[in-house]
Design a protein that fits this description.
The protein is α/β, with parallel strands linked by helices. The protein is 43% helix and 17% strand. It contains 13 helices and twelve strands. Strands 2-1-3-4-5-11 form a six-stranded parallel β-sheet. Helix 1 crosses helix 3 (29-42).
């Protein structure tokens, strides 16, 4: 049984369940009772700091992110840090700053990192085969968010499926001339979601017997400035599409800014959809595929704690996918 099972049975978020299991404040009596009842039925017991491995431990965990400035990573890190702190662990935040040189240096000397921390939580970091092997050989307990095909516990969403549904929403509104703003910016290697979201975009088009127009697929990274730059390039030097699928909400925000700069708007001129449900998406009226960002960070941190406390048990690593949902707002409309 995992904390996800307790959350599903109780009908509460993983963050709330995590706080309730540790008897922390800001959890209502009703929620506390629901969690206690679900945990009892499932036979789930939260790990405590007292069960920490004896001897040779640092009591610290490293959280490694492609960049510390993006909204997704800030939300996931904060939730993970709270869970780790509640279990008595200090955290060391390491940002790769979206620079391959920084990543090579870090994963080329994991022995040094292993002297400072007991475990590692990786958030959407793109690793090559050699780096994965280095992590396995480091002796560190490992869990991750948003990574696929890795030999350790992972929490994420179905990025391919979310992109497919987002693109399908645009197609269902009668938009067949679609652009995609996603991918990686030049020199960027750190984030792993881009390829899966492009595959989902392509799959949705193929289901409607449409082909991808390479001229309408632009690398925009996962930043507001990247989205703004890509959308400007699209309109000024390529052509105006009927609708745009942005690989994340921050990229979509940049696209909305570019439209404003050019005297255009969504959905009047172009329909736009993103993925995330960023806290500003409601304010800007952005249609998006909402994902439980904080729950992913909290769940992965709990899995890492379980590995730290029970390293001797032969528990096979598993991937846990959390649900996404379409949130319709005013940035998309039926094609006229």
């Amino acid at each position: 049984m995992t904390i996800q099972d307790v959350a599903a049975l109780s009908g509460l978020s993983i963050c709330t369940v995590s706080r309730a299991l540790r008897h922390l404040p800001n959890v209502s009596e009703k929620a506390q009772a629901k969690v206690a009842d679900a945990a009892a039925k499932l036979g789930y017991k939260a790990s405590s700091a007292a069960s920490r491995l004896a001897g040779g431990t640092t009591g610290a965990v490293a959280i490694i992110v492609p960049t510390a400035t993006a909204w997704f990573f800030a939300q996931a890190v904060e939730a993970a840090e709270e869970v780790l702190a509640d279990s008595g662990y200090d955290t060391v935040l390491i940002s790769l700053r979206n620079r391959p040189s920084v990543q090579r240096k870090l994963f080329g000397d994991l022995a040094g990192l292993a002297q400072r921390v007991d475990g590692v939580l990786l958030l959407n970091v793109a690793l090559d085969g050699g780096e994965i092997a280095a992590v396995e050989a480091s002796g560190l307990a490992v869990a991750s968010v948003g990574m696929h095909g890795v030999p350790w516990d992972n929490v994420g969403i179905d990025n391919e499926g979310a992109a497919r549904q987002a693109t399908g929403h645009l197609l269902g509104l009668g938009h067949w001339d679609l652009a995609m703003l996603a991918g990686r910016e030049p020199g960027e290697r750190s984030v792993v979601t881009a390829d899966a979201r492009r595959r989902g975009f392509e799959m949705a088009l193929a289901e409607h017997e449409l082909t991808v127009d390479p001229d309408l697929v632009l690398d925009a990274g996962s930043s507001i400035e990247g989205g703004r730059r890509a959308m400007t390039e699209l309109i000024e030097n390529r052509r105006m599409p009927s609708a745009v699928f942005a690989g994340c909400d921050e990229t979509a925000f940049g696209a909305l800014m570019a439209l404003r700069d050019l005297g255009l708007s969504a959905p009047k001129n172009v329909s736009i959809i993103g993925i995330d449900d960023h806290q500003m998406s409601w304010f800007l009226g952005l249609t998006t595929m909402a994902q439980p960002v904080a729950d992913q960070g909290a769940f992965a941190a709990n899995l890492l704690i379980e590995r730290l406390h029970r390293s001797g048990l032969p528990n096979p690593p598993a991937t846990h996918l959390l649900e996404t949902k379409l949130v319709e707002r005013r940035s998309t409309r039926r094609r006229r």
